[in-house]
């Protein structure tokens, strides 16, 4: 079954605009995916760019994919770096990190176009308290499959015999793809996955259902492929697919565990300073 879900507009903590198909009141998650935020596209004037200052995560993975712009990241384990156009940071928060995700100093000063995604992927119960880990790849390191009809950046999973270097805990596909008008592409995914096709631009039919601006197609327990046909506008989208974990989900903001007790313990650990803090030179 294919459902069409609107991506609702939210203004996040720091004041930046996102479009979010879930979590919203009507749809809290699509197992194993916990959140999709499309950030922008927004053109910042000098001094206007804003981000997400210090905040914790525990129990899942955050994926940051930048289409346009530049984010800087630093965390309580001493990790820091920049994510630029076409780059991906796949962070396994596991037992816990505190990090900040901010537009680069250059962007804060000069302004510019910011457009990207943050996606949360749940961790199975056995890995929720694993050591934090980063998988960071620049746009040049991520495979692209391209022919007359389509352009596909492989963030996770495979297209044909081309595989992303990113390791995932369950079979997961994450693709940014663009289709020329009136073309159809069939994406192979793990049978039994839950899948989402998120519209970035243009319009398409996904397994026979139409989606357009700020809409997502959500497919549960899929067959071995998902078929997308671009309309006369062409289509620019994101495909996510993953085998569901089928475990209880208890969440409070950036803490996602299996029970309320575990969420409360996470919050207590955070308040007690057990997630550490970001070391900064002043
Ligand atoms: Co974060």
How would you sum up the major sheet? 9 strands, antiparallel
Supply the CATH class. Mainly Beta
User: How far is the N terminus from the C terminus?
Assistant: 55 Å
Topology order in helix (H) and strand (E) letters: EEEEEEEEEEHEEEEEEEEEEEEEEH
Q: Residue-averaged pLDDT, rounded?
A: 96
Describe this structure as you would to a colleague:
By secondary structure, this protein is mainly beta. It has one domain: Jelly Rolls (Sandwich). Helix content is 6%, strand content 54%. It contains 2 helices and 24 strands. It has helices at residues 105-110, 260-271; strands at residues 2-6, 8-11, 17-22, 33-44, 52-57, 60-68, 70-75, 80-84, 88-92, 97-103, 112-122, 133-137, 144-146, 150-156, 158-159, 162-163, 172-179, 184-188, 194-206, 209-211, 215-219, 225-242, 250-252, 255-257. A hairpin with a 4-residue loop joins strand 7 and strand 8. It binds cobalt (II) ion. Residues 52, 55, 57, 62, 99, 101 line the site of cobalt (II) ion (CO).
């Amino acid at each position: 079954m294919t459902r069409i879900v609107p991506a609702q507009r939210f203004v996040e903590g720091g004041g930046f605009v996102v479009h979010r198909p879930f979590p919203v009141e009507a749809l809290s998650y699509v197992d194993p995916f916990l959140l999709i935020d499309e950030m922008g596209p927004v053109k910042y004037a000098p001094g206007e760019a804003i981000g997400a200052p210090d905040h914790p995560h525990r129990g899942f993975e955050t994926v940051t994919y930048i289409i346009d712009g530049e984010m800087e990241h630093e965390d309580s384990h001493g990790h820091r770096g920049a994510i630029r156009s076409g780059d991906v940071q796949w962070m396994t928060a596991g037992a816990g990190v505190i990090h900040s995700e901010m537009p680069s100093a250059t962007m804060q000063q000069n302004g510019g176009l910011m457009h990207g995604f943050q996606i949360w992927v749940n961790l199975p119960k056995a890995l929720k308290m694993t050591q934090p880990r980063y998988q960071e790849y620049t746009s040049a390191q991520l495979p692209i499959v391209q022919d007359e009809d389509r352009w596909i950046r492989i963030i996770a999973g495979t297209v044909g015999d081309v595989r992303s270097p990113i390791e995932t805990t369950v079979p997961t596909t994450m693709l940014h793809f663009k289709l020329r008008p009136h073309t159809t592409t069939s994406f192979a995914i793990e049978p039994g996955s839950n899948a989402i096709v998120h519209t970035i631009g243009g319009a398409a039919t996904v397994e026979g259902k139409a989606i357009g601006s700020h809409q997502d197609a959500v497919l549960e327990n899929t067959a071995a492929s998902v078929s997308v046909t671009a309309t006369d506008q062409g289509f620019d989208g994101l495909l996510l697919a993953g085998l569901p974990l089928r475990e209880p989900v208890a969440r409070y903001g950036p803490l996602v565990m299996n029970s309320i007790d575990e969420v409360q313990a996470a919050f207590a650990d955070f308040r007690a300073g057990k997630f550490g803090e970001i070391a900064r030179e002043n």
